Amino acid sequence: MKTKSSASKKKTSTSAKIGGIIAVILFFVLMLMPTPKGMTPEAQKSLAVFVFALIMWVAQPIPIYQTSIIGILLLPMIGAVEKQKVTFGALGYDIIWLMVAAFVLTSAINETNLGKRLALSMLTKFGKTPKGTLISLMLVNFILAFFIPSTSARAALLIPIIMILLEVYEQVPGESNFGRLITLQGVMNNHLATSMVITATSSQLLAIGFINKMTGSKLGYMDWLLGSLPQVLITGLIAFIAGYKLYHIKDLNIGGESTKEILKKQLIDLGPMTIAEKKTAIIFALTLLSWATGNYQEKLFGFSISTEQTAVISMLVCLLPKVGVIDWKQANIKWNLMIFSAGAYAIGNAFNDSGGASFIIQNFVEKIGLNTLNPNLVAVILIFITIFSHLIFTTKTVRATILIPTIITLAQSLNIDPVPLAMACSFGIAYTLTLPPHSKVNALYLSLGYFDVKDELKLGLITCFIGSVVISLLYFTYYQIIF
After folding, report:
1. Where is the chain membrane-spanning (predicted)?
2. Left (φ > 0), alpha (ψ -120 to 50) or beta: where does 271 sit?
């Protein structure tokens, strides 16, 4: 007898195969049909590759990085781009180097236990009450995002600590509201923290790469932080209050000093701060300092170090013999993600540079009458679409590849300044917090058994709505000033 799980896998496999067949058919249809009036042959070919890759990335009959490789090969082979170095060279983009460096820096934090020490230090100082514990965990999640870009790594670091707290507060899986809320907040805060720091997910690096390439901007680490920090803090605070009201924990009187003592014991067990931890802390402090002063270095020193250069220098220092803290084998670099991102850039840029994107958007705008709507209304619609699109497109990198170039082209066609709007929408890419399949983080917290899918969907939708409203308000005010 087949289990529900095996039946679900078979259904997924079938839909993936159907998606792959549709992708191939549409590729040949778009390639062989007469070139539409006003569209160049290169734009038509790049459109065919873009549509093929888009469907393959969503359906995933093969891994997404393999689809990217096919796209990189197809573009020069069919004449969508003039030379193969245009696509093959995508792996050398500065954003790709930034991603590689981010993975190395994350590995350094994990291997040295610096992240765990930081989390335990904060919780022993501020997590004396249930409410204080929830607030402390939210702050820890936000702070760790600067040092541990990987969402899964942050969750893996915090979950053992949360399990200790749940045991101390005598929480019962599936029954206790505090257990339900602390794990749900773990999901929400992880994704909000990710939205705050550009290096916290490769999809955000992908998004800002498109913005800089398509608008000629030079936005970097501090621009993202200054833009996203307010929406994260406001959304996080309102979502925290909403969750606290939704799941009443006023009757919880267990814990207090015992919680603090158990966490303190965990901290003591780590021993004194090691030389490797001190080195890592210094490397990260200097890295953050360089990123924070990037806009002023030229005036102060006569030269400036870019965000990417700073990251690569820090990566090198982490890996250097005797000076560094890890070796190459310990560096957990996800090369499949690097190749996917390179392919996404190559395909997206070819589609844009050939004029294919602008041709499609202009026709789309005229067909549905977007050009007759108030530009402010269009902006709000796009912000909401970006945040809630994760219900359809679960992969952040795919959403960034699809949405950000489209939003920029659409904004330009409607005479809307594309930079503030694209940045506002980019801040919503990390909002993958309503269902377990949307992120490994969601699945990790769900596996603890303290909340069910309905709980996550409820609080996730509330948080997404709050975030959409907050980002929309900031778009019309704050973002018009800083971008």
Report:
1. 16-35, 47-75, 87-109, 129-148, 155-172, 192-212, 224-244, 300-321, 333-351, 377-398, 419-439, 459-478
2. left
* Separation between Cα atoms, residue 213 and residue 173, nearest integer Å: 48
Q: Can you say how many angstroms the Cα of residue 64 is from the centroid of all Cα atoms in its chain? A: 16
Task: Please say whether the beta carbons of 347 and 388 come within 8 A.
Answer: no
Q: Which residue has the tokens 């709050």?
A: 466
Residues 6 or more apart whose CB falls under 8 angstroms from that of 74 comprise 49, 52, 80
Question: What three-state secondary structure class fits 435?
Answer: coil
374: DSSP letter? -
Tokens of 418: 């594309």
pLDDT at residue 422 is higher than 50:
yes
Q: Evaluate whether 460 touches 466 at the Cβ level (below 8 Å).
A: no
- Nearest to 249, CA basis, from 161, 187, 170: 170
Q: For residues 194 and 200, is the Cβ–Cβ distance under 8 A?
A: yes
pTM: 0.71
Give the CA angle between residues 255, 259, 262 to the nearest 5°: 145
Q: How far is CA 66 from CA 24, 80, 108, 359, 471, in A?
A: 15, 19, 29, 28, 35
115-128 burial, b at 16+ Cβ within 10 Å, e below that, comes to: bbbbbbebbbebbb
Comparing CA positions, the residue from 71, 41, 24, 16 lying closest to residue 342 is 71
Q: Residue 162 phi/psi, 5° resolution? A: -65, -40
Rounded Cα distance, 308 and 259, in Å: 41
Query: Which three-class secondary structure state does DSSP give residue 15?
Result: helix
Burial of 196 (0-12, 13-18, 19+ CB in 10 A): buried
| Residue 269 CB-density burial (10 A; 0-12 exposed, 13-18 middle, 19+ buried) | exposed
72 or 109, which is more confident? 72
What's the pLDDT tens digit per position in 118-170? Answer: 777 877 777 667 788 888 889 888 988 887 777 877 887 788 778 777 776 77
